């Protein structure tokens, strides 16, 4: 059976072809099986001959070549029965500067497909690792849970404005090196590079970029990796990769009833594989050996003779008796105590009377010590509490708490609360995992109840020393933002190591979830709804861009657009993200939405948000993901389609109809304007928002000509600290101005 997929682009691709022969015969282990190859132990169920292995666990020993074990054409480094893992060597993908074309297009991209094999890529053991000075590499895979769906994620490595000076040995944090985790249970992956970056100016500095899925514990970053071929050379072009393996695709309960159940040792137990389908076997407690071998085999699970291993099973003062599955360490006759600790056995000489007397005085002493002990504990506790308070104050100072208080005093009441550590701890149930509602690069979000109100509390990643003042300044600005399409910042707590931000809680889904539902056809959003959500998000971004002290978002993506009641868009994730973004040369944006301009300039501008927004607009129009396994980003597919006039093929069939084509085309033109590189000619967020509002209205009129009804959205003018909003009405209707204070703005649902 051929195991690789044929959908691969042949260009630049050296495929690792996997062929697997599944033995049909029942497993019967022939005598005289070779159990080692090239210094690697090959325990059953693995074997170097189909007769010596369980189906699918057949390896070959390259006796004519390097003498090493291979799984088809992938070298096997080691096999662990206990961890149910195998380590193999997988090729490192690379992309080098091509002098004749001035592009990064001279390289090899490897891919691996382990479908229908016992192996899965270990999510805990590996990290997708990218090395380079101006590179964005992607890893793509089909996920096992949802056939047809796919994972694509990426990782960006840059050398920042300071060039190689900022490279640090050991730190793989985006400068010259970046790492990202993969999901559980994957059986295939492929790697490719984004070729949009012009590296002409740095190729002397860093000629090649590298990317591979690498055993996390085996990798340490060295500064010269980013500027030479040292990474590739160190690993000889192939990096170690950890694979989880399991038997079959049934659970323990099902497998136990089958004739080919593999846990055949009489002292073995079955465990469901933690990485997906199938099970693994282990020897029972107190036994060691190979659980996959029959009891009569000498290698099968055998009792551990603990008495012969006093290092791990000490019995220094007593007599050791081995028992099946354990041991018994007793004090010699005539003594009692705990024989497992040195000097733990005491001679048993005391008479009953003496024991009673000693017992009585012991009671008195115990009482006295107990009282003293309690006093000491009380003292200690109060000292600890004071220390904690001091520490809280320290964090408060560190995060610029005084400055915040001062600013708040100067500003007057801004409707912003500074919460105490205890309040936050109580509200989140001590940061209970149960309350986590979101986890991302910027921090973790908890659902919490504060003063009887449901809120979302975000634990920021730590902030930079030099940015402290700006952080506080931005908090003050953010807390004054009152816009119906911006998630409201209610307060903060600065008494933790990392600042906590308290936001209004938005009950419903994110735009990301809506798009996923749409893709699987479990939800149908009309063009009007999509344009309205886009317009509302655009107005929110336009609003924060146009504040007297503009705020940039820096990580605009559907997962950061929350949808409230009636699918009203609320842009979230200001605060930690915006604050981090400007300090660091390393982009923290999300692959797929990240402006290529940013990688070149290392300077966040409003135009970066416009680009990311353009990608969202494309997603709304096409229903496609920004990154796909086809190795082409949605933006390049779109740009090609616009040039070739094949846009219709790319659009989401759900929204295409004759009446809407005019509006869709105009929206597509707007999206392409947002995606222009370089970014200086992109429209402002304000213009994008107004255009989208116009298009939404045009669509509304087209779809429902009899009812030229209400039109969205909210263009906000800030007058002092009071926000007012204008509501637009379609047709000849007037424009009304309402004060936010006495009228809650309602966004009208377009979807019908
Ligand atoms: C299984 O073993 C046979 C005989 O050594 C070999 O020809 C075949 O390639 C092996 N299959 C795998 C998947 O290694
Ligand atoms: C066996 O080793 C040689 C080099 O020593 C290598 O070229 C060949 O690819 C190896 N065989 C397999 C199956 O990988
Ligand atoms: C492609 O890369 C190789 C090294 O990986 C180099 O020797 C070769 O000159 C490059 N070709 C071009 C056209 O840049
Ligand atoms: C260099 O780029 C040109 C133009 O894209 C391409 O035809 C050529 O194959 C590339 N060279 C290598 C070695 O990849
Ligand atoms: C890359 O940038 C250089 C200037 O740094 C320019 O001369 C060259 O044409 C650009 N290459 C491409 C392929 O755009
Ligand atoms: C790279 O090095 C070559 C040869 O040393 C030199 O001719 C070229 O100008 C350099 N290019 C850049 C961009 O520094
Ligand atoms: C990484 O893996 C290789 C191959 O198994 C091994 O030789 C090397 O010692 C490992 N290095 C570390 C740091 O674990
Ligand atoms: C389980 O494995 C058997 C044989 O290996 C195969 O026929 C069957 O389709 C697999 N089932 C699933 C759910 O993968
Ligand atoms: C230890 O062995 C003694 C004698 O063999 C037995 O009486 C005792 O119950 C054993 N203790 C435990 C904990 O098994
Ligand atoms: C004896 O001491 C060991 C090590 O301190 C401890 O783990 C064990 O529980 C003790 N046994 C008894 C019976 O107190
Ligand atoms: C939004 O949340 C409310 C309350 O939980 C629910 O009734 C409503 O169906 C949700 N709407 C969507 C579109 O998810
Ligand atoms: C404007 O629209 C509102 C709401 O639909 C309606 O109540 C009002 O009568 C309209 N005014 C005019 C002048 O059409």
Structure in a nutshell:
The protein is α+β, with helices and mostly antiparallel strands. Among the domains are: 90-243, no CATH class; 401-504, Phosphorylase Kinase, domain 1 (2-Layer Sandwich), CATH 3.30.200.20; 511-703, Transferase(Phosphotransferase) domain 1 (Transferase(Phosphotransferase), domain 1, Orthogonal Bundle), CATH 1.10.510.10. 26% of the residues lie in helices and 24% in strands.
Itemize the secondary structure elements and their pairings.
Layout: E1 36-37, E2 40-41, E3 60-61, E4 69-71, E5 74-80, E6 85-91, E7 93-98, E8 103-108, E9 111-113, E10 119-121, E11 126-131, E12 134-142, E13 150-158, E14 177-180, E15 188-193, E16 208-215, H1 230-234, E17 238-245, H2 252-255, E18 268-272, E19 279-283, E20 287-288, E21 302-303, E22 319-323, E23 326-330, E24 335-337, E25 345-347, H3 352-398, H4 401-411, E26 417-418, H5 421-427, E27 436-440, E28 443-450, E29 453-460, H6 468-480, E30 489-493, E31 500-504, H7 511-519, H8 527-545, E32 561-564, E33 568-571, H9 576-583, H10 596-601, H11 606-622, H12 634-644, H13 647-650, H14 661-674, H15 685-703, E34 715-719, E35 722-727, E36 736-739
The protein binds 2-acetamido-2-deoxy-beta-D-glucopyranose (12 copies).
What CATH calls the topology of the domain at 511-703 is: Transferase(Phosphotransferase), domain 1
**CATH class annotation of the domain at 511-703:** Mainly Alpha
According to DSSP, the number of beta strands is: 36
Helical residue percent band: 25-40%
Structural class: alpha+beta
The residue ranges in which pLDDT falls below 50 over 5 or more consecutive positions are 1-28, 577-587, 706-752
Tally of helical runs: 15
Report the end-to-end length measured between terminal Cα atoms.
50 Å
**CATH structural architecture of the domain at 511-703:** Orthogonal Bundle
Unique ligands:
2-acetamido-2-deoxy-beta-D-glucopyranose
Task: Evaluate the radius of gyration.
Answer: 32 Å
Shape from CA axes?
A: globular
> What fraction of the residues are assigned to beta strands by DSSP?
15-25%
Largest sheet, if any?
A: 6 strands, antiparallel
CATH superfamily of the domain at 511-703: Transferase(Phosphotransferase) domain 1
What's the arrangement of strands in the largest beta sheet?
A: 3-4-5-6-17-10
What is the arithmetic mean of pLDDT?
78
């Amino acid at each position: 059976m051929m195991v690789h997929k044929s959908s691969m682009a042949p260009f630049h691709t050296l495929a690792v072809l996997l062929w697997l022969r599944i033995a049909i015969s029942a497993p019967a282990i022939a005598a005289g099986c070779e159990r080692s190859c090239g210094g690697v132990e090959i325990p059953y169920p693995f074997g170097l001959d189909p007769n010596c292995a369980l189906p699918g666990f057949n390896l070959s020993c390259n006796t004519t070549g390097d003498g090493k074990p291979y799984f088809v054409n992938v070298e096997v480094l080691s096999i662990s029965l206990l961890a149910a893992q195998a380590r193999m060597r997988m090729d490192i993908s690379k992309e080098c500067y091509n002098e004749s074309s001035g592009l990064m297009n001279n390289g090899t991209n490897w891919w691996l497909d382990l479908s229908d094999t016992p192996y899965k890529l270990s999510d805990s053991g590996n990290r997708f690792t990218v090395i380079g000075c101006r590179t964005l590499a992607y890893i793509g895979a089909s996920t096992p849970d949802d056939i047809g769906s796919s994972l694509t994620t990426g990782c960006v490595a840059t050398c920042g404005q300071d060039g190689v000076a900022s490279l640090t040995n050991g730190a793989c944090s985006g400068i010259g090196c970046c790492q990202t985790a993969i999901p559980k249970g994957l059986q295939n992956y492929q790697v490719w590079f984004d070729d949009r970056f012009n590296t002409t100016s740095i190729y002397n500095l860093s000629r090649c970029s590298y990317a591979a899925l690498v055993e996390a514990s085996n990798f340490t970053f060295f500064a010269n990796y980013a500027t030479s071929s040292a990474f590739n050379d160190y690993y000889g072009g192939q990096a170690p990769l950890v694979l989880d393996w399991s038997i079959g695709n049934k659970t323990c309960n099902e497998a136990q009833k089958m004739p080919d159940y593999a846990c055949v040792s009489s002292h073995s137990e079955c465990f469901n594989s933690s990485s997906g389908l199938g099970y693994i076997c282990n020897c029972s407690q107190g036994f060691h050996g190979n659980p996959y071998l029959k009891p009569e085999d000498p290698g099968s699970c055998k009792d551990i003779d603990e008495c012969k291993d006093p290092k791990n099973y000490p019995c220094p003062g007593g007599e050791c008796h081995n028992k099946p599955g354990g041991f018994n360490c007793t004090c010699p006759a005539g003594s009692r105590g705990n024989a497992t600790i040195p000097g733990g056995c005491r001679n048993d000489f005391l008479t009953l009377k003496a024991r009673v007397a000693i017992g009585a005085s012991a009671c008195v002493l115990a009482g006295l010590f107990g009282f003293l002990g309690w006093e000491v504990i009380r003292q200690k506790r109060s000292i600890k509490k004071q220390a904690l308070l001091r520490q809280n104050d320290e964090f408060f100072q560190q995060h610029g708490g005084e400055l915040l208080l001062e600013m708040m005093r100067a500003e007057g009441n801004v409707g912003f609360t500074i919460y105490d550590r205890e309040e936050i701890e109580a509200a989140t149930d001590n940061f209970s995992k149960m309350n986590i509602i979101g986890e991302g690069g910027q921090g973790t979000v908890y659902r919490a109840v504060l003063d009887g109100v449901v809120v979302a509390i975000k634990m920021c990643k730590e902030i930079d020393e030099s940015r402290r003042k700006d952080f506080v300044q931005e908090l003050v600005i953010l807390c004054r933002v009152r816009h119906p399409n911006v998630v409201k910042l209610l307060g903060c707590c600065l008494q933790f190591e990392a600042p906590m931000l308290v936001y209004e809680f938005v009950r419903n889904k994110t735009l990301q979830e809506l798009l996923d539902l749409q893709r699987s056809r479990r939800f149908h959003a009309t063009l009007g709804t999509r344009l309205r959500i886009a317009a509302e998000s655009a107005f929110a971004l336009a609003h924060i861009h146009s504040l007297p002290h503009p705020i940039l978002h820096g990580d605009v993506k559907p997962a950061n657009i929350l949808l409230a009641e009636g699918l009203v868009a609320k842009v979230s994730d200001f605060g930690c993200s915006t604050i981090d973004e400007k300090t660091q040369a390393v982009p923290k944006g999300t692959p797929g939405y990240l402006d290529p301009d940013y990688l070149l300039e290392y300077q966040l501008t409003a135009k970066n948000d416009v680009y990311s927004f353009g990608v969202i607009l494309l997603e709304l129009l096409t229903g496609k993901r920004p990154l796909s396994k086809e190795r082409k980003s949605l933006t390049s597919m779109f740009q090609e389609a616009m040039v070739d006039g094949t846009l219709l093929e790319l659009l989401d069939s759900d929204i295409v109809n004759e009446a809407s084509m005019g509006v869709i085309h105009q929206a597509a033109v707007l999206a392409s304007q947002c995606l222009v590189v370089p970014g200086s000619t992109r429209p402002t967020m304000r213009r994008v928002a107004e255009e989208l509002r116009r298009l939404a209205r045009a669509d509304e009129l087209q779809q429902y000509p009899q009812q030229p009804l209400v039109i969205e959205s909210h263009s906000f003018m800030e007058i002092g600290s009071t926000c007012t909003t204008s509501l637009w009405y379609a047709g000849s209707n007037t424009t009304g101005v309402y004060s936010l204070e006495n009228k809650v703005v309602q966004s009208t649902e377009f979807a019908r």
